[in-house]
């Protein structure tokens, strides 16, 4: 199973979807074609906006740091926030916006607690991996997070976890995902 399919499996057939930081629109295109979904992507990068348009994906160019005030409460069935949280300054505000605008949110981010990362830190180096591919001095990531820390953040913000698992090389990891998975995935709603 690929990462795209593992995330797509969390989205109900026919859902209205908002994909925050949608990149080139590959996932949203997949959801439209294979799951009968509708919706929009939000993207800042000019080249990615153009790629979305070429795929036929509805895209809005917007800086997520400014919030989602253009959308009413519960406008979408699902809000995807995949590998965007680590780039945002106000993580908690964006999580609240995610569950305000959508009935459910699906969040993913690189899991800093994955065992190869721990070994690199133990050796005195910041990790460089497939999911964290940048050197410490040129990373677009503002922060790093762990599977376990997100669970605490969700409880603190009164978000109810509907599902959670890790991903490793496209495989779903449910046994010790904080240690065994390079990517953390959470499906959540307002608590």
Automatic annotation (TrEMBL):
CDD domains: AdoMet_MTases (cd02440). Signal peptide: none annotated. InterPro entries: Methionine_synth_MetW, SAM-dependent_MTases_sf. It holds the Pfam family MetW. This is Methionine biosynthesis protein MetW. It comes from Roseateles paludis. The gene is metW.
């Amino acid at each position: 199973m690929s990462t795209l399919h593992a995330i797509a499996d969390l989205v109900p057939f026919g859902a209205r979807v908002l994909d925050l930081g949608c990149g080139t629109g590959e996932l949203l295109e997949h959801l439209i074609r294979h799951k009968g979904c509708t919706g929009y992507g939000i993207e800042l990068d000019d080249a990615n906006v153009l790629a979305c348009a070429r795929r036929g994906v509805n895209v809005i160019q917007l800086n997520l740091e400014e919030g989602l005030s253009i959308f009413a409460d519960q406008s979408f069935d699902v809000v995807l926030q995949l590998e965007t949280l680590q780039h945002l300054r106000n993580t908690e505000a964006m999580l609240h916006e995610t569950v305000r605008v959508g009935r459910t949110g699906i969040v993913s981010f690189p899991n800093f607690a994955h065992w190869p990362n721990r070994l690199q830190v133990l050796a005195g180096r910041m990790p460089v991996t497939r999911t964290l591919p940048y050197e410490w001095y040129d990373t677009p990531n503002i922060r790093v997070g762990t599977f376990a820390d997100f669970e605490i953040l969700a409880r603190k913000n009164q978000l109810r976890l509907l599902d959670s698992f890790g991903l490793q090389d496209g495989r779903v990891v449910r046994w010790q995902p904080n240690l065994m998975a390079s990517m953390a995935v959470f499906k959540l709603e307002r608590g």
